[in-house]
Amino acid sequence: MESSERQLRAQMRFFHDLVRKLAADGDPYAKVLSAPDNPYPAYEAIRARGVLYHSPLNTWVTADHELANQVLRDKRFGVRMANGDKVPEFMNFDNSMLGLDPPDHTRLRRMTVPTFNPRIVERWRGRAEAICHRLIDDILAKGGRFDLMTSFAHHLPTAVIGDLVGIPEEDREQFHLLSREITPLLDGVVTYEKSVSVHAALDGMAELFGRIVEQRRADPREDMISRMLPLVDEGSLTMAELLPLCMFLPLAGTETTVNLIGNGILALLRHPEQWRMVAEDPELAQGAVNETLRYDPPVQTYRRIAHEPVELAGVTLAVDDELAIVAAGANRDPKVFPDPERFDITRSSRNDTLAFSAGIHYCLGAPLAKFEAEVAYQTLITRLPDLRQAGPVRRRGSFIIRGLQEFPLSAG
Ligand code: HEM
C-alpha cells in the first residue's frame, strides 16, 4: 500500500471515528454527519443550541432561517479559503461554479445563465409530459410493480439536462452509469474505497466529455457546449473550466431533481388526503413541489467560509472559519413556517425556503427542477391514482443529498 493511500485511509478512519464518538456524546451536528434516516430531530437540537453554535467538529452551525439567509447574501463569506485556495477536505466540487468565489464565479455563472433561461421550461412541457406518459405505459405493460427511482424518477431529469448540455443520445447510458459512480462526491465525506471509484469515474467522465466537446466543435448544435466553445476560442473561458462545468451541471441537475420527485411522492403517499387533492386538481402539484422543497429538500446542507473576521449573533468568526448552513433545518424554523412539522401543500409562505440556497450561488436550475417535478407528480398521480407503497424504502445514506435509493411501488 502506498504511503499516500495509507495516510488517506487513516485520515478518513479518524474522521469517521470522531463523528461516531461525538454523535454518541450528543453533538447534534455530528449526528447529522452520521446520516441518520431521520435527521430532523438533530436539526431541532441544533436550533435548541441557539442561532449559531460551535460544533466540536470545528465548524459553526446554524439552522436559523434569518441568520442563514443573511450569511448566504453576505459578501464577507465565500466557498473557498480567504486566500482563494480550495477548502482542504477529501472530495468536493471545487472546480465547478459551486466551488468558486467571485470574480471567477461571476464570469462562469454569466456564461451559463442563457442555457437555463426559464423560457426553456415552456419549450420542454410537451416533451416532459410525453416522457412521463411513456414511462408509465412501460410500467403498466410490465404489470404495475416498479421501483420509482430507477423506472421513473431519473429518466426525465437525465433527458432534459442531456439536451441542454449537449450529451448525444448514444452517450446518455454511459453518462448515467458514470454519474452513479460519481454521486458520492455530492455526499461529502466518503470511504477510501468510494473515493477510488469516484476518481476512476471522474476520469471516465473527462474522457467522455472530451470526446463530446470535439464532436460539438465539428458539428455545433443548440446546446451549452456548442454555445461555450467559441468562448474558449476567444479566451474568456478555459478548457479546464469548461470540462468540470460539463460534468457538474448534469450531476447537479439530475441527482437533486430525482430526489425531489422521490421525496415528494413519498410525502404525498404518507398524506393520502393531499394525494387526493392533487388527483382532483392537478394544478396543486405546484404547491406539492414547493412544500416538498421545504419539508424534505434534496439538498439538506451546504457551507460557507468567512473571508474576514465577522461578528455574528454575538460571536466573532475568524478568517477561514467554516459555517454549515443546515438549510433543511432552516426550512422548519417555526419563526418563518408556522407548524413546521406539518406537510401542507397549500402553505402560502413557500417561497422562503432555502432549498435552492440564496445569494450569488442560488441554484441556476431551480425553475427547471420545479417544472420537472411538477410534471412528474401530475402524470403519476393522474395516471396512477391508486398508487401505493409495495415495500420498505431504502435511503441513500448521505447527510447532504436526501433521497431514496429504492422506493418500491404498485400501481393498484
Ligand atoms: C430539486 C432540484 C435541485 C436542488 C434542490 C438544487 C439545490 C441547489 C443548491 C442548494 C445550490 C447552492 C448550494 C450553495 O449555495 O452552496 C445549487 C446550486 C446550483 N444548482 Fe441546483 N438544485 C437542483 C436542481 C438543479 C438543476 C436541475 C440544475 C441544472 C440544470 C442545477 C444547477 C445548479 C448550479 C449550476 C448551481 C451552482 C450555482 C452557483 O454556484 O452559482 N440545480 N443547487
Q: What does this molecule look like?
A:
- It is a single chain.
- This protein is an alpha+beta fold and 412 residues long.
- The protein has a domain at 88-299 and 363-410: Cytochrome p450 (Orthogonal Bundle), CATH 1.10.630.10.
- The protein is 53% helix and 9% strand.
- It has 16 helices and 12 strands.
- It has helices at residues 3-24, 28-33, 40-48, 65-72, 104-112, 119-141, 148-153, 155-165, 172-182, 192-218, 224-234, 239-270, 272-280, 285-295, 327-330, 366-383; strands at 53-55, 59-62, 77-78, 145-147, 302-306, 310-312, 315-317, 322-325, 388-389, 394-395, 404-406, 408-410.
- It has a 5-stranded mixed β-sheet. A 3-stranded antiparallel β-sheet has the order 4-12-9.
- Strand 6 and strand 7 form a beta hairpin.
- The termini are far apart.
- The relative contact order is 0.16.
- Residues 97-98, 109, 161, 249, 252-253, 256-257, 260, 297-299, 302, 355-357, 361, 363-365, 368-369 line the site of protoporphyrin IX containing FE.
